[in-house]
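#onboarding

Welcome to the new folks! Below is a worked example of what a typical request in this channel looks like: someone posts a single protein sequence, and someone else replies with the predicted structure as tokens. Don't worry about understanding the tokens yet, we'll cover that in week two.

Example request:
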Amino acid sequence: MESKRIDKVLVVGAGLMGSGIAQVCAQAGLGVTVCDVSPAALERASKTIAWSAGKLVEKGTVKGPLEAIMARLSFAAELDGAAAGQADLCVEAVFEQRALKREVFAALDRLSAPGALIASNTSALSITELAAATSRPERVLGLHFFSPVPMMEAVEVVRGMATSDETFAAGAAFVEAIGKAPIKVQRDVPGFLINRINLPSNLEAMRLVEAGVGTVEDIDRGMRLATGRRMGPFETGDMVGLDVTHAALCALYEETRDARWYPPLILRRKVCAGQLGRKAGVGWYRYDKDGNRVGPT
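Example response:
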């Protein structure tokens, strides 16, 4: 069966992930609407996309001009039929909170065209559970992008229990169409594939810092030099947001009741203290007003 063609995309959530998803879609020639209840978040997303896409155009890695990319983007402060009705694919990219995501899914189901696909960028929550908030679970899938979206090539395409073969194929084709590599997740398990492999090492890194065995800087340096990673676990954690990591781990723990996923005390305390990473000026490292790292916390 021929997979559904996707020309217009709605992204709900204008944060780091949502703006990145919108950017790569616009760069690939798709029409994109970004929706967020916060006008400030929409303004920030527009500026971030323009800056990031502009750098890629300058380097010649993305076909310009920048004006053409930005012209494919529109921004909406309200999720309504005008925003959702024309989309072939709706991508939810709000905070990793089950109730909030289910609320967004129910709204997308009500407002989008009957044939539209609905996807979640969740890193840990069940696609099957999110799909249950809609009347079209066969058209729901996971599209888990990695941060920073414009730079990371992999996207997990996740099949829920009710996801149809056509929807799964359309998700993989969409990922390829925007220049990414689809990583197919055939079963809806907590954490999918990459996080099930990656998060245990990140948790161990936090526990080693907590126990005083090593420093944040030495662990990051060692992981870069010994494993070939472009960024260490703490550098990555600050970019993603410690609150986002905490929420993902909590979701995994709630789903499995497996103690290995429970957030370490050092992470829980940092989140309580508002040390959420680069966006807060302090996380595992400290940052200046321009987001440049100035030293360890």
